[in-house]
Amino acid sequence: MHEHFGILLVLGICAFLGMLGASFFQKIKVPQVVGYIVIGLIIGETGLGIVNARHIATLQPLVYFSLGIIGMLVGSELQISEFKKYGKQFAAILFGEGLAAFIIVGIISGLVFYKLTGSGSMAVAAAVVLGAIASATDPASTISVLWEYRSKGILTTALIAVVALDDALAMTLYSLGKSVATIIAGGSASPLHEMAMVAVSIGGSLVIGAGAGFILNLLLRNIPEKENALAFSICTLFLVVGLSVSLDMDVIISSMTMGFVLTNLAPKRSEILFKMARGMSIPIYVLFFVLVGARLNMRIIPGWVWGLAVLYVVGRSSGKFFGTWLGAKTSNADPAVRKYCGLGLFAQGGVAIGLSVVAGHNLQGIQVNAEMNLGEAIVAIVTTTTLIVQVLGPPMTKLAIKLAGEIGRNITADDIALKYHVKDSMDVATSFIHEADTIDRVVQVFANSGQSIHPVINREGKLAGIISFESLREILPDRDSWLWLLASDIITQPREMVHPDTPLQEALHIMNSTNSDVLLVADDDGKASTGIIERGQIQSFIRQKLLEEG
Amino acid sequence: MDTELVGGVISIANILSPSRIIFCDDHTKEDVLRNLADVLSKDSRIHNPQELFTAIMHREELMSTGIGLGIGVPHVRLASVDDIVMAVAVSRQPISDYESLDGEPVQIVCMIAANAEQHTKHIKLLSAISKLLKDKNRRDKILAASSPQEVYKIFTG
After folding, report:
1. Within an 8 Å CB–CB cutoff, is residue B59 touching chain A?
2. Contacts of A453 in chain B (CB under 8 A)
């Protein structure tokens, strides 16, 4: 029956169940991305088969676009200033973790394959290819965790930089590994040619991304409307992804470069843009990670692969952890980076799977045993290990940022405006005017307070209205009247009132919609015992809280 | 009809009419105010006479509207009033219980009712009346007038 499910229905099932799964995992304090992947496993090739190989093949363009969105948003997090400050550290960590994982997994894989096949050349071929694939880290799930938990700090910055640049290192190591494997196994290959192809791929991706970033920046200067700017950016991303796929370039590197160029050329303009893109990309993430889980087919994995997979995961994780530690130590990185960065690099996903698929094609002529060739073995191993690390990796990333104290530090003005209420930011000691006060007294109150409006209360202590400086101005020239006109003669009714428990965001929204900079604050009884709140007060409070909590 | 300000100046001619000018010999402030409220209430711009009188008296409780020089300016702004409107009472005898700022007995009473939103016009009219009646000659002419038309001409002349 599932064979006949149309692609739209499959997408709907993936998205809906993905969100449900994520909600459940969020409740048990596990990163949402794990929920997406587990749902994918359940409805995909391993489980119910609702999403099958045909669907996955049809949805490949969506997967590419998802990688593009993720890459663009990853690039938007990379600031040139951070690279200038921490560039050496990032490079040391990147090479440390990548090479350590390569070496350790290579050694383990080589030993296991030698034990299985008795062939030294086969063992070396498997070792270099699996080692290279092991050096890749999944930017998508790592970044997803960092965003979900609003992390900010030196560790977060280091993680983003390392996972963003990891692809280039993994691709380089893979191309070397693939050449060596082919030569060792008796085939012909040119390492120089392979390296040149990688250089073209990486270089071409950078050119596409940078060019798109520059052009988009020029276009956005002439597009003031936020919605149109976002639409243009998404269309440009489509072009970048399409071009990268057509020319066999790396989608993540090209889209990441586009995001990097845009955020560094136009930081203020692009900040709003990327915020909007992040908001609209949630369904795309859900679909992407559900499909990651769906394509994993555990049923066809032989038993010995599971054993090797466990060793691979242990070896890779150890390499990531100790390689990071070594790189951080030698470059004098912050202690939080030295201690915890390795924990955040456990995830493996899109790039590793992509490289394993390529290896599956390139190395299919090399037989491991009667049933399986080297390419098939690598696909099976990487698929299995991806399952394990995609489930374990995000919680480890969360643990890393938690230990470093960076969870919840990425706070925006909107977060503060939602978190705090009118009563938190208003002046408690507001001078009240009584309806029977003469204008002479009202003028004194205004002069002493510096406020632009004052609430007026009646004999019962209830709100009678407000006096604004604007309304007071009408009678200022006629000083004679100050002695016989009263506050009640010049009060007006407030256009809007807010409750002390109203969130600041809502208060600002009311001010914007009524074109007012001041609101009266009254409790449920309509008493003016609480005073007024001004736009400037709210903005000043938000700035202060950003400095304290950000 | 919403009374316009012309050049920032309010026109009393549109707000007062001879039919809303009365001569009275009431002895108490409340009687004068009640009579004036009744006169005002005959105008189509007033929709709730009882509310008008209650509000006028409430304002008096806060502070007497006797502003000195024998002038009283009871006034309110109400949502039930369509547009600013005025009535005048001239008392031959001083109204004994109408307190004023300078202690001088009140004899000319200008009652003003405006819409709740007519804050500016309301203030400008009060100010205009105050300035108008500061002139002793004018006040004496009003007190000596023998008809509402005569009083109207003094206010609008």
Report:
1. yes
2. none
Distance CA B27, CA B98 (A): 10
Count of CB atoms situated within 10 Å of the CB of A218? 10
Position A397: which residue type? T
Give CA–CA dist A260/A263, Å, rounded: 5
- Distance of CA A168 to CAs A151, A199, A503, Å? 25, 9, 46
Q: Which chain B positions have a beta carbon within 8 Å of A488's beta carbon?
A: 59, 62
- Residues of A (439-478) whose Cβ lies below 8 Å from B: 471, 474-475, 478
For A137, the 3-state DSSP assignment is: coil
What is the model's pLDDT at position A421?
93
Beta bridge partners of B81: B46
Count of alpha carbons within 13 angstroms of residue A388, beta-carbon side: 19
Nearest to B130 among A471, A481, A493 (CB): A481
CA distance A89 to A349: 25
Going residue by residue through chain A, which has 550 residues, state the pLDDT in tens, using 9 for 90 and above. 555 568 888 889 999 999 998 888 888 878 888 888 888 889 988 888 888 888 888 888 888 888 888 888 888 888 888 888 888 899 999 999 999 999 999 999 999 888 888 888 878 888 888 898 899 888 888 888 998 888 989 999 999 889 888 877 887 788 777 777 777 666 655 667 777 877 888 889 999 999 999 999 998 888 878 888 888 889 999 999 999 999 988 888 899 899 999 999 988 888 888 888 887 888 888 888 888 788 777 777 777 788 888 899 999 999 999 999 999 999 999 999 999 999 999 988 767 877 777 777 677 777 777 777 778 788 788 878 887 888 888 999 999 999 999 988 888 888 889 889 998 988 765 667 899 999 999 999 988 887 778 888 888 878 888 888 888 888 888 888 888 999 999 998 877 788 889 999 999 999 998 888 888 888 766 655 567 788 888 999 998 888 877 6
d(CA B55, CA A267): 60
Q: Are A436 and B119 an interchain contact pair (Cβ–Cβ within 8 Å)?
A: no
In a 3-state reduction of DSSP, which class is residue B82?
coil
Inter-chain contact B122–A436, Cβ cutoff 8 Å?
no
d(CA A143, CA B126): 68
Quick one: angle between helices A350-362 and A120-134, nearest 10?
A: 150
Which residue matches tokens 């949630």? Answer: A282
User: Facing residues of A533 across strands?
Assistant: A519
Reading the block at residue A468, the tokens are 């604004």
The token pair at B134 is: 């500061």
Q: Which of residues 472-511 of A touch B (CB under 8 A)?
A: 474-475, 478, 480-481, 483-486, 488-490, 492-493
Three-state secondary structure of A66-108: HHHHHHHHHHHCCCHHHHHHHHHHHHHHHHHHHHHHHHHHHHH
**B9 touches A at CB < 8 Å:** no
Interface pTM, i.e. ipTM: 0.88
Name which of A484, A486, A490, A491 to mutate to probe chain B: the one with the most chain B Cβ atoms within 10 A of its Cβ: A484
Report how far residue A2's alpha carbon sits from residue A11's, in angstroms, rounded to the nearest whole number: 13
Distance CA A333, CA B113 (A): 77
pLDDT tier at B4 (50, 70, 90 boundaries)? Answer: low
In this complex, do B123 and A485 lie within 8 Å of one another by their Cβ atoms?
yes
Give the span between the Cα atoms of A218 and A214, in whole angstroms.
6
Q: Rounded mean pLDDT of chain A?
A: 85
Asked whether the beta carbons of residue A474 and residue B119 sit closer than 8 angstroms, the reply is yes
Paired tokens of A375? 């390419």
Instruction: Give the relative orientation of helices A7-27 and A282-295 as an angle to the nearest 10 degrees.
Output: 100
- CB count, 10 Å around CB of A307? 12
Q: Is A62 on the interface with B (CB under 8 A)?
A: no
